TrEMBL record:
It comes from Roseburia hominis (strain DSM 16839 / JCM 17582 / NCIMB 14029 / A2-183). Residues 18-257 form the Pyruvate flavodoxin/ferredoxin oxidoreductase pyrimidine binding domain. Residues 567-676 form the Thiamine pyrophosphate enzyme TPP-binding domain. Keywords: 4Fe-4S, Electron transport, Iron, Iron-sulfur, Metal-binding, Oxidoreductase, Pyruvate, Transport. Residues 285-388 form the Pyruvate:ferredoxin oxidoreductase core domain. InterPro entries: PFOR_II, Pyruvate:ferred/Flavod_OxRd, Pyrv_Fd/Flavodoxin_OxRdtase_N, THDP-binding, TPP_enzyme_TPP-bd, Transketo_C/PFOR_II. This is Pyruvate ferredoxin oxidoreductase, alpha subunit. Belongs to the pyruvate:ferredoxin/flavodoxin oxidoreductase family. It comes from the Bacteria. One of its GO terms (biological process) is response to oxidative stress.
Length: 783
């Protein structure tokens, strides 16, 4: 045994620690709860110089998977972590990784797949990996997360397949346990060994020789091998594709044979026995409960209680989902009369979750297969207590138990006649997911929302939209479309900015929110803060979704299915939504759908705990851009989204700030007019986040004003391609150095220190350059 030390850490922390000890070349990642802590912890260690991993924050999980694939094709050791819809967003990349036989390790902190949106843990995400050609290891405790991350890489490189290490989100991922880790990183380095690559001089003699051997004996092809160029990912027809898949099948079978050898080797190194399956008091068990993950430990306690009552109960679990250990399961289950398989996901319409279906298939060859019952439990992170395990055993012991059912469902309530009138009835929870929610607020009518406070008239001779009215005092008559009953943090800029926007938009409004704080704090089921129609879709697809709403609206009006009249359609994005959702937004703008894209830019992925986004200022601290011996915060400049949107040549682009409310309201009115008449309009507001900016909630308006006055966030508009500067702090003698603004926030205050002077100077130089270009465009008649 190698020397080890005790750590008291969670599964996420131990996954990061294992990655640090391995010292991967590259981690491509995108933050998503509950796996985000893995990248965060690696960033902390990286800031202290404890590893050399290149941590690349992609703009979405699909790109993160692409980064990993590219890095592995370049001969690098590669790491990733994701959850839920992030895994699904990247799904098409996973067969590419396995089909070209590129090894890597990806951690999956299992979480509910949306919709509706839920961030808690179940297994509905990892089951999508079953048919991707990835090896899947499942850890039931933090210790195995660490062990499987080490063993997983060695297995991946031995059989040339990628490996996923899965574990329960918010249970195994976040709960701390006493664990053992190797004290010296050298132990891990020696255990993993050196990766053979054709571009490595140490193994270049292998390249191009045509020598056959086992996968482990042959060097990895690399796109960096300039002496022996290779093409990775060729176009194939039959019979090559079926041969490729057959080779992948053989690789999976090689993994099946390799695992016992690796388990033995790892036991000698660590003193910990690993296996394909786990079983407790199964030898003479007549009734077995099958569960995955952390529920296994809860079920063991239930087994002990039942044994005291004379019930021959046992519990089994899997540590390896792919390759599926059917042979081993047949040995474990051959004495049981009944097995109840509890799945934290449903394969809808199949009569059971994936593990139910696979266990039935595996045991069907037994001379007398046991009765197998399927139960769906624990969805959305619903807790699993010993009492729940006992209840499942009770069902398994009943001869009349149905073959398939859900466990732990809460019955809905019957809707009253009053509730079902109009659009507010709710007969059961399923209906409540749709439009049939109880009506908590009186809807805002068109008459109420059209007080005539702003008037927009398009002048075809000048190509400008003329706005009259729009003073802050007058717009107090505009009804609130977002009610005060939201859960935003004190000082949060989101409700302020959304309500300022809507004060300038008269008439009917339909809102779409991408995932983010703005959506989460206003729509906690079963209540809503919205007095107008609201739709949610995920970060990456909000604009496309709203464009579908817009086109259906116009088509239904055209066909006489919907009343005549105008609606202003607004997509609200923020919390990094214009990173992962940039492609969807650009596509929508290029198509020119008649809607507004409104971005509240709070400078980070705030809803997942403030990881850096592409709009985070250079040098700012975040949970994925720490300040330490080797880094000073975020290391690249903020994204200029208005200029990107302007490049699509949409009719109207504008920036707004709560510190200049009249300008804000008038631009909102102008954007609404353009969106109804001409096509897509885009507005961006700088939105305060006291919690993560680390400043005072009651001072946020002054912080926003300082961002405007230092020209970090200039106020301007681009109307039909012509730029107008709406506020010039220099000409008003209000221009301040950027350090004055940076010093107002804890996330950037460190940049005022002498050791970071060069970073602050670089920020000032870039802000001045961008602003000079903006002023020059505003002074030019064609720009």
């Amino acid at each position: 045994m190698e020397k080890q030390k005790i750590m008291y850490d969670s599964g996420n922390e131990l996954a990061a620690f294992a990655a640090k000890q391995i010292n991967y070349h590259v981690m491509g990642y995108y933050p998503i709860t509950p796996s985000t802590q893995i990248a965060e912890n690696l960033d902390v260690m990286g800031a202290e110089g404890l590893h050399d991993i290149a941590l690349i924050a992609a703009e979405g999980e699909h790109s993160a998977a692409g980064i990993c694939y590219g890095a592995s094709a370049a001969g690098g050791r590669v790491f990733n972590a994701t959850s839920a819809n992030g895994l699904l967003y990247a799904l098409e990349q996973f067969p590419v990784q396995s089909g070209t036989r590129m090894p890597m390790v990806m951690n999956v902190a299992c979480r509910t797949v949306s919709g509706p949106l839920c961030i808690k843990g179940d297994h509905s995400d990892v089951m999508y990996l079953l048919n991707t050609g990835w090896i899947i290891l499942f850890a039931d405790e933090p210790q195995k997360v660490y062990d499987f991350n080490l063993l997983g890489l060695k297995l991946a490189e031995a059989v040339r397949l990628p490996v996923a290490v899965a574990f329960d989100g918010f249970f195994t991922s976040h709960q701390k346990r006493k664990c053992l880790v190797f004290e010296n990183d050298d132990t891990v380095t020696r255990y993993i060994g050196e990766k053979l690559s054709c571009d490595n001089p140490k193994v270049s003699a292998f390249a191009g020789t045509g020598t056959c051997g086992t996968a482990a004996e042959l060097p990895y092809a690399s796109v960096l091998d300039l002496a022996h160029p290779v093409s990775i990912g060729s176009y194939m027809n039959e019979p090559d594709v079926i041969n490729n898949r057959y080779q992948l099948h053989l690789a999976m079978e090689a993994a099946r044979n390799k695992l016992p050898e690796l388990f033995t080797e790892y036991a000698a190194l660590s003193g910990r026995e690993l296996s394909l399956c786990g079983a407790y008091r199964h030898e003479d068990a007549e009734v077995l409960l099958f569960v995955l993950g952390s529920s296994y430990h809860t079920a063991m306690e239930a087994v002990d209680r039942l044994r005291q009552d004379g019930v021959a109960a046992g519990v089994i679990t899997l540590y390896v989902l792919r390759p599926f250990p059917a042979k081993e399961l047949r040995v474990l289950c051959h004495n049981a009369f009944t097995i109840l398989v509890a799945d934290r996901q449903d394969s809808y319409g199949a009569g059971g979750g994936n593990m139910s279906l696979e266990l039935k298939a595996a045991l069907s060859s037994l001379p007398h297969p046991p009765r197998i019952l399927s139960r769906i439990y624990g969805l959305g992170g619903k807790d699993f207590f010993v009492e729940d395990a006992l209840a499942l055993f009770k069902e398994a012991l009943s001869p009349d138990a149905p073959a398939f059912d859900y466990y732990g469902v809460t019955a809905g309530t019957e809707a009253s006649d009053e509730e079902t009138s109009g659009t507010s009835g709710r007969a059961d929870p399923a209906m409540a997911v749709s439009a049939m929610q109880p009506q908590y607020f009186k809807p805002v009518t068109k008459e109420e929302s059209t007080p005539g406070l702003t008037t927009c008239t398009f002048d075809p001779t000048t190509g400008e939209m003329k706005v009259s009215g729009g003073s802050v005092k007058d717009t107090t008559a505009m009804p609130m479309r977002v009610a005060p009953g939201h859960g935003a943090c004190p000082g949060c800029g989101i409700p302020i900015n959304v309500n300022l926007l809507l004060k300038g938009i008269e008439g009917n409004v339909v809102l779409l929110f991408q995932t983010g704080c703005g959506m989460v704090v206003t729509t906690g089921y079963p209540k809503t803060a919205f007095r107008v129609p609201f739709l949610h879709n995920l970060f990456q697809n909000g604009a496309a979704t709203l464009s579908g709403v817009v086109e259906a609206f116009h088509q239904r009006q055209k066909r006489g299915e919907y009343p005549d009249g105008e609606i202003t359609f607004v997509m609200v994005s923020g919390d990094g939504g214009m990173d992962i959702g940039m492609g969807s937004a650009l596509g929508t703008a290029l198509r020119g759908h008649k809607l507004i894209i409104f971005e509240y830019d709070n400078g980070g992925y705030m809803n997942t705990g403030y990881q850096l986004s592409y709009s985070t200022p250079l040098g700012a601290k975040s949970s994925t851009s720490h300040v330490g011996k080797t880094q000073y915060g975020k290391n690249f400049f903020h994204k200029d989204t208005p200029e990107l949107m302007a490049a699509t040549h949409i009719p109207y682009v504008a920036t707004v700030a709560e510190s200049n409310p009249t300008d804000f309201i008038r631009k909102a009115a102008k954007a609404a007019a353009y969106s109804r008449e001409f096509g897509t309009a885009y507005i961006k507001a700088l939105s305060a986040c006291p919690l993560n900016w680390n400043d005072k909630p009651n001072l946020e308006r002054s912080v926003i004003a300082a961002a405007v006055d230092c020209c970090y966030f200039p106020l301007y508009e681009i109307e039909r391609g012509i730029t107008a500067l709406n506020y010039d702090p220099a000409s008003s003698n209000k221009k301040i150095p950027v350090t004055e603004w940076l010093g107002m926030m804890g996330r950037t205050r460190h940049l005022l220190k002498e050791e970071y002077r060069s970073v602050a100077e670089e920020i000032q130089k870039e802000i001045d350059r961008r602003y000079a270009r903006l002023r020059a465009r505003a002074e030019h008649p064609l720009l």
